[in-house]
Structure of non-specific serine/threonine protein kinase:
Amino acid sequence: MNSSFTPLPSTPSRVFSASFDDTPLRSNSSAVRLYPKLSSSSNPHASNSTRAEMDPLLRRELRGAVFYDLAAFVDRFFPPSDAIANVYDYAVQAGLYDATAARWSHWPTPPTERRVLSFFQDVVDNSLLHHLATITSADDRRSIYRYVPSNEAPLRNGDCMRKTDLLLTTQAPSDRVNFAELRANRYDWGAVRVVGELKRNPKESNDEDTLVQLANYVREVLGAQPCRRSVHAFTLCGQHLRAWLFDRSGAIGGRQVDINAEPLLFLRIICGYANMDATQVGFDQSILWDRGRPYIYADIQLPGTTSTRRLEIKTTPIFSRHAIVTRGSACWKARPYLDSPPTSEDSWTYAVKDQWRACQRESECGIISSMMTDDSDHIVGLPQYISYSDFQEDGKPVDIASTVRRDLIAPKRKRDDTDAAAGMPPPPKRRSVSTAASEMPPPPKPRMGAAAAPAWVASHNVSSSCKRRASDALPPSSSSHSKRLTFGERSSSVQATKAVHSPSLPEFNNRIFSRLVMTPIGKSLDEFSSYAELLAALRDAIKGHQHLYEKHHVLHRDVSVYNILISPPDHPSAGVLIDLYLAININRPNNSGASHRTGTPDFMAIGVLDGQPHRACHDLESFFYVLLWLATFFDADANRLPDVPGTLWNACKKVFAGGGTFEDVAMMKRAFTAADQFETKCLARLADDARDALGPLLADWRDLLFPVCDEMRLSDDMHAAVVRRLQALKEEKLKLED
């Protein structure tokens, strides 16, 4: 806590000068979507980042968040079963596996990509999985997916142009496959279930570059399927197979499996992937399909009623974050679920927002609850919250540690006030987990829904329901220690280093899943219909920010272009400020203890980038950057403009993508917003209509912010400047009409 801070009085008037201790900043790969390359993709929001651009961002994002050689990984996710034993017996009898020589008869030497793909076609798909289907009930047979090649054409609907080697997808044939006919197919990232990467060299199994390459594909899956809780992936380097699980906290992996020496483990993993149901493959089991319509399965109480209703959600989110290690925020339009759905767009009256908060961070639901208690009427610039809570299933919170990772790795303990006073937390409590197969918890029971649609298809998992054979026990792990992958700072040539931990569980940053429902539905700020609509939304969002701070002592700390929504025309507020994930009560005794907070440096205030404690004036500076960013990249009709070289945003992007620090970005912003540089470096680079309509307001805000002369009046002064500019635009429009 800053020693100069004075606790707020019970009825404050203006308190914008207070500052507060902050959690360290960290970036992730989602920011690249602020700068799509319009000329190279039909998707207007795709960044189309190259591997050279994306790999350094993913290395930074995954640093300290990857653990592998977890001895119990295979048993947790691919338990032994009679069905797998049956497939193994079939492989031996059919001559597919030579038990005497301990090798797959058709395994290629050398294992080039094309030869390994042929092995998957002839042996895995058309023999092993075909046999598995014959011993499976007719109802479940259609849910055994086949592997398909995807190494010749980039997949559709991605953020970047990426193609992986091998996929499990709902777009694949349901029986025997012919890779020659499938090779040129362009699959969709929205239908991908599992991704695989093939390498000829077995040494690449433990290489950092291999994992980063796999992470590129996982990022695309999570971006195209924001309802995913996790993504399964694997690498097959030579004859060494390693299974991975990616989630919003990073990645965990099993030990290296020699597919020739350990055929049962190979079958458990490869057949297990093909036979996973929707929950096991990583989908949110509370979102189901009904005749092609996804809907929230959880019951939610709607305003003015004592009953609960199910909500239908629109398949395309209003926004979602394209990154791996992130809170994974996704926001959808929603409406009450009806047997006969309305046809009007006006029926989408709610917004559902899902996200994974750091477990050390207090839930925004607590802030919302206190606001709802104090605010009985509509507040300008803020949404009305209908439902808000950490999500639960079977009476237990949904989190990464238990729900997703099945207690394979221990979460860091949340720091309490006593720990903070002592200066550091006491040793964390660790739970020991046996690796004996008989003590492993079974996979979660599948939630069977109605008729299935693309990626949320539910299926029965044979291997999880069959009795295990004693002869199919897990061989002892090659190491009793897990390992953390430590990424190099900048160079892709830096090799992965193994940090060997004690046999007790390593710790990671756990996350908890939360869901809230709010109204009005609104639209993204970059979808404005006129500059007047844009400015009106910013005007009211500033009032909402002021209300949060002055009445509820809440500092938002994450003002960005995606956290302001434009309200429907008939709503009392033209715009609303949303997403209180990073918000704090300024009277908190200490910071949350979270390892970091993720932010987009483009909209961060210079002081925050420099490491200063976050203040209310920093949030207001973020409003300035939001408007400058929109003025730079969008015309009066919200059409995305071609990239203009030499802007502040180009400079910041190059600095950060090149390995620069937050302080480097702050230095760049300071240079561009200087009094003698702002006109030529910022305003002069705007298109004519943006400079004429928005330039005067940007100049006024710049003068108020750099430097801030009166923090207590800053919110009112910025609000008044917007009002003046809106009036000027109205008068200019009337003159043109005359």
Summary: DSSP finds 21 helices and 33 strands in the chain.
